[in-house]
Design brief:
Structural class: mainly beta
Number of strands: 6
Strand content: 35-45%
Shape: globular
Number of helices: 1
């Protein structure tokens, strides 16, 4: 799998607590938008929406690498991404389970 140097994060837009970032990975680039805050050393991205890659393109290890990179860039100990209500797809109208990194039930952070 790839390392932190294989992932880059570029902030495209900021308006108060809303941030749009472009995240480049070896399998392609995607965009993430959400309400960003840091609380007790945890980076929280609420009402998050992601676009730009096919579902499953990153895999769990890719997601973990992106999460580690985001934590390094924000200088935090954890990350929580709380998805916004889905506007497309099979689960349209539903909110996905929060993505927590590292996962609280595991001491491993690489999936």
């Amino acid at each position: 799998m790839w390392g932190l140097d294989d992932v880059s994060i570029e902030i495209s837009f900021v308006d108060r607590d809303v941030m749009l970032v472009a995240i480049a990975t070896p399998v392609g680039t995607f965009e993430l938008i959400g309400e960003v805050r840091i609380r007790a050393g945890i980076l929280v991205i609420a009402n998050a929406h992601i676009q730009g890659l096919e579902p499953g393109a990153l895999g769990r290890q890719g997601l973990n690498t992106v999460a580690r990179k985001m934590m390094v860039e924000a200088d935090v100990q954890g990350l929580v991404v709380e998805g916004g209500t889905r506007t497309t797809g099979r689960t349209r109208g539903r909110r996905q389970r929060p993505f927590r990194f590292p996962h609280p039930s595991s001491s491993r952070d690489d999936g």
